[in-house]
Amino acid sequence: MDERQHIARLLVSCPDRHGIIAAVSGFLFESDANILSSDQHSTDVEGGTFFMRMEFRLEALQDRREELERAFAEEVATPFGMAWRFAYASERKRAAGLSRRPLPSGPPLALASR
User: How many CB atoms lie within 10 A of CB 21?
Assistant: First the structure.
């Protein structure tokens, strides 16, 4: 099985306060996940917004996704007022393509249709 099937990232933002990292890492620990990396930032220690990205490995993640998300929402996200999402390594990332081609010359499309 592809190792990416066991890897996910948890992205979080919420009002900054004590205990956020402990709550998230404790939840992952209790879920038998292994934290691979963690990055966090706060816009201001007092009254700022806290942002965190935590990557973890969890055996049988694909089978446990729904329950993991439900439990996280109930046990951690709601009490801390978090905006959050899980990003699964096995899923393709959405991307936008940019082009350096010049815009067509001529009248704007709205005018050209008249």
Answer: 14
The DSSP 8-state label assigned to residue 6 in this structure reads: G
Domain over 3-90 is classified CATH 3.30.70.260: yes
103 has pLDDT over 60: no
Which segments of the chain does DSSP mark as H helices, in order?
Answer: 20-30, 61-72, 78-80, 109-112
Give this prediction's pTM. Answer: 0.77
Burial of residue 109, with CB atoms counted within 10 A of its CB: 0-12 exposed, 13-18 middle, 19 or more buried: exposed
- Under 8 Å between Cβ of 113 and 35: no
When pLDDT is averaged across residues 44-57 and rounded to a whole number, the result is 93
